[in-house]
Write a structure and sequence with these properties.
Blueprint lengths: L2 E8 L3 H16 L6 E4 L7 H5 L8 E2 L7 E2 L3 H8 L4 H10 L4 E3 L4 E4 L4 H15 L2 E3 L6 E5 L2 E6 L2 E10 L14 H8 L8 E3 L3 E3 L12 E9 L5 E11 L3 E3 L1 H16 L4 E5 L5 H9 L6 H6 L4 H11 L12 H12 L1 E3 L1 E4 L7 E3 L7 E2 L4 E2 L5 E3 L7 E2 L4 H17 L2
Amino acid sequence: MAERADIAIVGAGAAGLFAGIWAARRARELGHDRRILVLDGAAKIGAKILVAGGGRCNVTHHAVTERDFNAASTGAVRSVLARFGVADTVAFFREMGLELKREETGKLFPVTDRARDVLDALLRALRESGAELRHPARAESIEREADGFVIRGAWGEIRAGRLILATGGRSLPKTGSDGAGYEFARALGHGVTRTFPALVPLTLADGHFLRDLSGVSFPATLEVRSASGKRQASTRGDALCTHFGLSGPAVLDISRHLIAARHADAGARLVVSFVDADRGALEGELVALGPKRVASWLRGMLPERLGGAILAHAGVAPETSGATLTRDARRALLAAVCELDVPVTGDRGYTYAEVTAGGVPLSELTLRTMESRVCPGLRLCGEILDVDGRIGGFNFQWAWASGFSAGRAAAE
């Protein structure tokens, strides 16, 4: 005989746990006796939370707006974020005994610097709410019936009046995100936009000099340009050379824009500026160097190893002085410093991506309740939706806000 629940939540990541907490809290507020069951296929819950922020968990950012996200409609994102903001996130974790601290970057971390404390707070809140967590209990199929939903797995069958899909996307598949939620959504009548890795390191061509600088980090402006040279996206921040190519916050942020651009334009490329200065002004400095060495001038702006590699790439000997630098060599050096065309060969895929771009369109939901417009009783939240934020805690804030709205509304 099938087990029964009033509300079933498939997926116990950040959004799913939050949906369960707020569904149970809202049911209690209303005096309703609801059985709320959270299912997850993982043997250990919260793997993504535990690895986030280098094991510290970047819970949110001090200032979150719709402009920090990629979505078909920023207005739709704003609508969801408005229902549960940063102050609400801080208050929730404080209520659970965990204070958050703001770092210079604006990121908010637990004062303990332990992602485990974030997960423990969520699990404790779920237990105290009265919702039930069951794992490992992987859902293998979901069907719509006249009076609700049937969820089946190797463990048996559950019938639920209402369903919340919080299965995540495809990023970090070792944590259990394998894209199954997209198939569930399709089976229940939803569309799914093209999905691809986002916040992912980029790979460079074999032999490129940046690959020989593994461990060197630097601030840079990164731009995505079309084959015709049109600027399509830009970000500034820290980048990191690695044995395979490039990583670091700025690279992760620009990655989804480059991948998306190349889908429509195979000639789209990444251009890097290593300095935050006007090219004309830099040329004037080079012309005025006189007997001073170009290498010394460059060392004042860039890490020594990077400066030396850029000189070699531009074909300029380290001992060259400003007075002996030819016009062609000067132009080559300025191009390498201010507008280096970087031969990106690809990305490191979902295995290393922090989030998935694409998913179920927000246009298919009623945003106040996160309820499906095509399948009554179904709600969706978190990474399964076609929303992805930049690095810095924004994707967690999306999980908290969308999970809050979905959970509360499901209980009403």
